[in-house]
Write a structure and sequence with these properties.
- By secondary structure, this protein is α/β, with parallel strands linked by helices.
- The chain has one domain.
- 41% of the residues lie in helices and 18% in strands.
- A hairpin with a 4-residue loop joins strand 5 and strand 6.
- Helix 1 packs parallel to helix 5.
- The two termini are 16 Å apart.
């Protein structure tokens, strides 16, 4: 059996948009996407003490479903939404909605303190995970979509669940027959000045307002792991 690459994303529409593209590009690997039903790095019940166990649940679920061993995994790859996590508090403002509302320069809601608390917690967990090389003995890497996957891939923010379904379907349809166009798409429309170095790409997204802007470093996955 080909080695398993387990990609972890936040939602079912994220999986729908990306999984078939990666499966076609990496035909020599057993690519599988799992979604976490939300952002585990924003979940207040998850901490540095238990976040690795939380991620490993998805590995264990795959092992049980397909009757494979831990040694059958090649790597875990987590794709984070940055969600403006690294912006200065001056970019967090009072708004008209209970939900967090994003622009490329600010985050707002009726209770801005909730955003500040979320950002502090999410930063702590993301920075912790980025310091890991493996989880339970399986190589681990993290990449980002900014401000989130919808923003990165479709150029849109604050989509409803129904809109996410619509756009993920359109994105899938646009690339599934021509997966070789996915990387050029990222490099032309989404990278937007992110340095072509994995450590530098993460330093960049943590600076100024970049974690609210349209960026990704997912393009570096392909250079770090070229198709054989």
């Amino acid at each position: 059996m080909d080695k398993v690459v387990l990609f972890i994303v936040e939602g079912a529409t994220d999986k729908r948009a990306l999984e078939s593209i990666f499966k076609k590009i990496y035909r020599n690997k057993n690519v599988h996407f799992e979604f976490t039903h939300g952002d585990i790095t924003s979940d207040e019940t998850i901490s540095k003490q238990n976040v690795e166990n939380e991620i490993y649940k998805y590995v264990k679920s795959y092992m049980d479903m397909y009757n494979v061993r831990k040694s059958d995994f090649w790597q875990i790859v987590q794709i984070f939404d940055t969600d403006g996590t690294y912006v200065d508090d001056s970019r967090i403002v009072k708004g008209d909605t209970n939900e967090f509302f994003y622009t490329e320069s600010e985050i707002s809601c009726k209770k801005p303190e909730k955003i500040k608390q979320r950002n502090e917690h999410k930063r702590e967990l993301m920075d912790y995970l980025l310091g890991l090389k493996e989880i339970k003995g399986i190589p681990y890497e993290g990449y980002y979509m900014s401000c989130n996957l919808d923003h990165a891939l479709y150029g849109l923010l604050n989509l409803t669940d129904e809109e996410k379904k619509t756009y993920s379907g359109k994105f899938y349809a646009a690339f599934w027959e021509y997966p070789s166009l996915f990387l050029p798409f990222l490099e032309r429309y989404v990278v937007n000045g992110v340095p072509n170095s994995f450590p530098a790409s993460w330093r960049y997204i943590k600076e100024d307002g970049h974690s609210l802007e349209r960026h990704t470093n997912l393009n570096l996955y392909f250079s770090n792991h070229p198709v054989l």
